[in-house]
Amino acid sequence: MSIGVVIVEPRLYINVGYVARIMKNFGVTKLFLIDPSYDAEKANKYAMHGRDILDSATITNLNELRKCSKLLVGTTALKGSTRLNVLRDTIATDQLAALVNALPKVENVSIILGRESSGLKNRELEICDLVVAIETGTRYRTMNISHALGIILYEIYKQEARSISGTITNKKPKPASRLETDLLIKYVSAAAEGAGYDIHKRHLLDSAVKRLVAKANPSSKEVMLMVSLFRKCVIRMNRGIYLPANGAR
User: Fold this and answer.
1) Does residue 249 have a pLDDT over 50?
2) The domain that contains 68 carries what CATH number?
3) Where are the alpha helices (DSSP H) in the chain?
4) pLDDT (tens digit, 9 = 90+) per residue, 209-224?
5) Enclosing domain of residue 18
6) pLDDT tens, 148-206?
7) Would you state the pLDDT for residue 157?
């Protein structure tokens, strides 16, 4: 897989420098910045051998990154306290590592680090496919973004090394593309609208489907079968047609 690191609204040059340094440690070279405002010259001093990563960083936004990423992974220290808080339904670092390492090498994964002061907002987590949290074993779970990134990358590359050492002979099915999974989400949303699903819950439903698909890492065939099902449901609802299971009207 190809991993990119994203920093949202970076302001502290020390943190930006340390992020680049951690990236260099693990051979990750793609750094993306969203609305940056830091002293680049001072950040270089803390990047050490990762200065080239800072020099080649790209300024972008989450919507553009979603288009070119198989997985957009948010990070948070604030987990959801209720079952309805789908946006902050998190997975552990080892779960993320397993999902990332199951992807073909050509796929892009973007790890998003939030603001140093307040992390990622709900509207940003809503764009993400998955959200990862690091268990510290204490009530104080907030970590420096560079430290958190180091733990996440270590877990990913530790599992990658294990998978390389093993012998893999089974041919894996073609994974679903971003276009295919987005199409599934679109038809689920359309089916919900046609069924009269509560308007205020629809964005949560979209997020739940997005998380479910990302965790399952389904094949192209599996996703397109689901697309065909929901598409047929939408068509029949629009026509006012109902067919029981046995096909009789």
Assistant:
1) no
2) 3.40.1280.10
3) 13-25, 40-47, 51-55, 62-68, 93-101, 122-125, 145-165, 178-194, 202-216, 220-239
4) 999 999 888 999 999 9
5) 2-165
6) 999 999 999 998 876 655 544 456 788 899 899 999 999 999 999 988 999 888 888 99
7) 93
Handedness of CA 21, 26, 27, 31 (dihedral sign): negative
First vs last Cα of the chain: how many Å apart? 49
Q: Does residue 170 lie in a domain region?
A: no
Tell me if 178 sits within 8 A of 25, measured CB to CB: no
Strand partners, 2: 108
Q: For the residues of 92-154, what is the DSSP string, one character each?
A: -HHHHHHHHHTS-TT-EEEEEE-BTTTB--HHHHTT-SEEE----SSS-----HHHHHHHHHH
Ramachandran quadrant class, 115 (left: phi over 0; alpha: psi -120 to 50; beta: rest): beta
3-state secondary structure of 214: helix
Question: What average pLDDT does range 232-240 have in this prediction?
Answer: 88
pLDDT of residue 70: 92
Share of the chain above pLDDT 90, in %: 65
- Residue where a domain stops, chosen among 142, 165, 188: 165
Classify residue 72: in a domain, yes or no: yes
Q: Are residues 147 and 197 in the same domain?
A: no
39-45: long-range pairs with CB below 8 Å, 24+: 39/13, 40/13, 42/13, 42/14, 42/17, 43/13, 43/14, 43/16, 43/17, 44/17, 45/17
The sign of the dihedral angle between the CA atoms of 116, 121, 127, 131 is positive
